[in-house]
Amino acid sequence: MPEDDAIGSNTPIPANPEPDDRSTSMGAATLLGLGLAAPLVAVNALLGRLAVGLPLLALGIVVHELVHAAVWVAAGRGSWDRVHFGWQWRALAPFAHYTQPLPATAYRLGAVAPLLVLGVLPSLLGSLAGWPAVAAFGWLLVIGAAGDLSVLWLLRGVSSCALVADHPSRAGCLVYPPPRPAGED
Ligand SMILES: [Zn+2]
Hints:
The chain is of the alpha+beta class. Helix content is 50%, strand content 16%.
């Protein structure tokens, strides 16, 4: 079977899509994500105090969604036109969705980027440099990425060239097999 070398986000959904449903309920995703983040949060308990303002946290959550979108657009060679921003009342939080299937690697990069950039990085930096507010911001943003961790967990084992789309109603994704490199355009 021929292998693709480059799959852009312009790639249409395959003709006979039989998506692999990698989703779970929103509630289960939150529990799963918190379970996956728990070891990280436990480290925070050792590091001490939480001292960060709510406005800063709110800003962090908004930037978190922007980082998702920016990395999906960049890594998937996509377009900002395909990013849908919204507000999810159930989670009392904003969200960013990429409205087309993305190659799994690009999807994973976009999913993990806010956790690393806004969570892990400031928490380590703040802890090492002795800046408790920066560390606290980072750890809270690690907790804020619990849902993203659960999505990455649901995608474990998915081929890097599969196409991944946000599930329309549940937490997680629909995974489409890689398209054939046919010469139709
Ligand atoms: Zn996220």
